[in-house]
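Task: sequence design from structure.
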């Protein structure tokens, strides 16, 4: 790849570890505050329905902005867009620290929904600097670093929230963590000058008329991506929706089913994150062990369905913990597998847009799941689990019927 010949292995390793740190701090900061937002909104006097609407702002705006931020990073460079996203995310969390009214809370969710795309840009950067054979390992280790942040964040955030003004303290710390991430990227993340869209004639057209040709360029790029990855997008959405709808009311469902305390629920969440972190360290090897990634994703989808059945109908807490372990393993490996399959089908010029669209699929699920789960809970506590099982079954059917086996094709491509 052009620009990589002057980028030796030591520089690549240093850059990779820096991005691991950025990912860790990102999810650590998010998980510090995430469990506290809905409770704070209730303290501001809004109804549960309004809380759900406020929380859905983030997912809805991520859905809209994700593809455009990804495509922007294809054009302007990963580092510049990553710096911008980190800065604006810090601003968003600073607004959260000022959220003594519902208006400020809504404004903060808008800022975060529009600009919190650092994770997707990090993955696009990995795809750009990492040799194809090492990508599953790197993606897995990156997810492990991020999950480590998710283990520590809820525990520390829960402790800090018990002091007076705890929510505002945690929000301020989260904002400062993203400022720290900005500084790390500014001083230490300097990727090689790879062959990006900004060197092509189409990119010159892209910048000549931002109102007409920009939109045309975006549409053409996304059409190409959909032509090559539409089947993967369907499977990714269905599998993500199955997980997210189950987890969207996890605390309520578990508390009602097993009569456990919030402290125990927090320990269950941290335990799931610990399992995911350990598995992520080896997920790349698992993906490489399979000669056919399409077969692997089918096995993972079947495992997801069986695991959700076990979680939904678990008779006791130990059985629930067993199936929670299985779900954490399945989810970790499937994330790496689908990301690797997507990147293999794409080319470097469209990697940012591809991963932006992939993130938007998850945001679509995040926007839909809380509302649908809430409606199903009106009927039964097992409603979200049953819907998740149904989504997983449809994903299995799609893998068998429409998912193209791209291994032989992509192996012919040069990175």
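Answer:
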């Amino acid at each position: 790849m052009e620009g990589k010949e002057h980028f030796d292995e030591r520089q690549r390793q240093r850059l990779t570890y820096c991005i691991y740190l950025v990912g860790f701090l990102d999810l650590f900061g998010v998980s510090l505050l995430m469990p506290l937002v809905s409770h704070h909104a209730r303290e501001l006097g809004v109804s549960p329905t309004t809380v759900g609407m406020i929380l859905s702002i983030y997912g809805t705006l991520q859905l809209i902005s994700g593809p455009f931020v990804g495509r922007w990073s294809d054009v302007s460079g990963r580092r510049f867009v990553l710096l911008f996203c980190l800065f604006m995310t810090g601003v968003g969390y600073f607004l959260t620290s000022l959220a003594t009214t519902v208006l400020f809370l809504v404004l903060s969710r808008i800022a975060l929904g529009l600009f919190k795309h650092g994770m997707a840009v990090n993955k696009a950067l990995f795809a750009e600097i990492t040799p194809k054979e090492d990508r599953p390992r790197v993606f897995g280790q990156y997810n492990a670093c991020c999950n480590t942040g998710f283990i520590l964040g809820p525990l520390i955030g829960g402790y800090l929230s018990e002091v007076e003004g705890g929510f505002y303290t945690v929000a301020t710390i989260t904002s400062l963590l993203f400022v720290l991430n900005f500084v790390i990227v500014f001083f230490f993340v300097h990727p090689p000058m790879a062959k990006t869209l900004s060197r092509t004639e189409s990119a010159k057209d892209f910048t000549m008329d931002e109102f007409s040709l920009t939109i045309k360029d975006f549409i053409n790029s996304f059409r190409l991506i959909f032509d090559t990855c539409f089947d993967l997008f369907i499977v990714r959405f269905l599998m993500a929706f199955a997980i997210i709808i189950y987890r969207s009311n996890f605390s309520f469902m578990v508390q009602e089913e097993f009569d456990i305390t919030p402290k125990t629920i927090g320990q269950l969440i941290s335990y799931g994150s610990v399992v995911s972190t350990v598995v992520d360290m080896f997920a790349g090897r698992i993906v490489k062990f399979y000669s056919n990634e399409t077969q692997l994703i089918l096995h993972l989808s079947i495992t997801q369905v069986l695991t959700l059945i076990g979680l939904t109908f678990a008779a006791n807490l130990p059985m629930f913990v067993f199936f929670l372990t299985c779900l954490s393993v399945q989810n970790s490996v499937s994330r790496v597998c689908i990301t690797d399959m997507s990147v293999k089908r794409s080319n470097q010029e469209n990697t940012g847009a591809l991963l932006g669209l992939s993130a938007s699929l998850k945001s679509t699920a995040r926007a839909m799941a809380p509302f649908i789960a809430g409606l199903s809970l009106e009927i039964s506590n097992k409603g979200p689990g049953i819907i998740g099982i149904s989504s997983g079954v449809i994903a299995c059917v799609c893998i068998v019927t429409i998912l193209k086996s791209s291994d032989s094709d992509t192996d012919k491509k040069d990175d």
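The radius of gyration is 21 Å.
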